[in-house]
Amino acid sequence: MTRFKRPESVLVVVHTPDAQVLMLERESPRGFWQSVTGSLEWGEAPLFATIRELAEEVGTVDAEIRDLRTSRRFPILPAWRARYAPDVDENVEHWFAAQVSQPFSPALSEHADSRWLPWREAADLASSWTNREAIETLFTSR
Length: 142
Known about the structure:
Blueprint: E1 8-15, E2 20-26, E3 33-34, E4 36-39, H1 46-58, E5 64-75, E6 90-99, E7 111-118, H2 119-125, H3 129-140
Parallel strand pairs: 1-6
Antiparallel strand pairs: 1-4, 2-3, 2-7, 5-6
Helix pairs in contact: 2-3
């Protein structure tokens, strides 16, 4: 089973106390904006995946990480289906927030660009409905 990707991931909304949200543009496809995201490795807990993905995608950051205790299930797009076992067609995404004291310049390794935006603008820019919903949920439930 470990030759296939685990159909479970994290979405991490990186933000400041004044509701600035970090958005990342994927290398491919360009124009796809998202928060920090990534698949869980086999045997890995969502919190540990969150810490690992933050380090991999933006560099090590001093952040207060909070489990939002929310997850969403969504269909895996056909372009990525081959990475998963043949009978897998959905992914489960766990939501986290990572509060940093102020905007920083991320050490981009997997993305083409980054932007810090007010949360409403970040939600509007998010390319996936789950990312948009996570940002909106985080800031409207305060």
